[in-house]
């Protein structure tokens, strides 16, 4: 029987925006014992939610913002699940006007963190609290337990914490939610989470490509390989669902579904934002950036068609000349290595962003709350948490003794896979760029010395020396003498 609270009752939490994510989140709150106020600009969605799922808990539906706000207990707490951008700003303005001092507005969408910083200041100036909360897990997570990354004022977390803990995923009895830091910290961390997700998905795709077109395996056979991998070090949500996708047949033709899907991947912005912010912070998130470019290239369908029609020269393409089982194992190990680089680079960006904006984000918290509910949940997140427990100031995640030991067993297969992909003519941008990043970190000297010499030659940009302090310039157009600046 549908349970709709009387207007004299008050809701602990409200949800604005009842598309799939918002509707599922409202249901999750209600299923976990919360009375939930619900509002959508189109009343039909509100009515549909109550009609179809009203028996899952107690809801208070409203058809105006004013009624919605009036149905919330103080301090009022309303979570916005509408399209990012202008629509979010419009709802924030409506709620700010209707709410009172101390009430809390939560943006649960994928907002750009700089927008969240701006919004937090604007809302705070009017005496309300604003929380940008990253929510990961997709539609299923929103309904059954997401990973939640709220930012905003610490006082807001004191009020919001218990109700968010009631709906978050749990691992070993620990809810996958914690206060990330002030203003835009929550949305920043969710942005980088999605960047890691991009890299993870791309490198899994590259592993599939190598097994399919390098080793000549069919999708159903590769699905079984991924199921085996998911029982070991690669145990993760994305490996698990990859096996499901590869095993799926097209309901209409009976062909492998992966062969029916157009090979042009879309994006909604968070991966691109992560790459841009990495450049702004000067953090080399090469695997993440390459995964964004790989999606862009996949969608450049006209260029790709022209290149194929024009028969761009391929050079000498070789066939795989190693044992198939050995190659599959090499790909597994290379995939594990590249995934570790993706996570390491993501944590580097979070550390740099935290320092830049004064957020004091704790990487141990992220490794904890990403173990469940979110898309990048993986077995080795427990190891990542241990790494930061042992040394909170790790220069890079892969310098942790455990991960260094893992990489010692992965590096040779990783090199072999990148060489084999090149010989086979198969693109592996994340495998290759991540390996180059790894080798750059361990190199005693990099060609940046030459680049600094070039910059000094054409632009008098100066350089530093290895043998003493100071800044120097060569008089290139004169007598080539050294000048200390």
Please name the defining characteristics of this protein:
485 residues, two-stranded antiparallel ribbon, alpha/beta
Give the secondary structure arrangement, pairings included.
Layout: E1 3-4, E2 13-16, H1 20-31, E3 35-39, H2 43-53, E4 58-62, H3 65-70, E5 77-80, H4 86-98, E6 104-107, H5 113-124, E7 129-136, H6 138-144, E8 147-150, H7 154-165, E9 170-171, E10 174-175, H8 185-214, H9 219-229, H10 237-247, H11 257-260, H12 270-281, H13 286-298, H14 301-309, H15 324-357, H16 363-369, H17 381-390, H18 401-424, H19 429-442, H20 448-459, E11 472-474, E12 482-484
Parallel strand pairs: 1-4, 2-3, 2-5, 3-4, 5-6, 6-7
Antiparallel strand pairs: 7-8, 9-10, 11-12
Helix pairs in contact: 1-6, 8-12, 8-13, 8-15, 9-10, 12-13, 13-19, 15-18, 15-19, 16-17
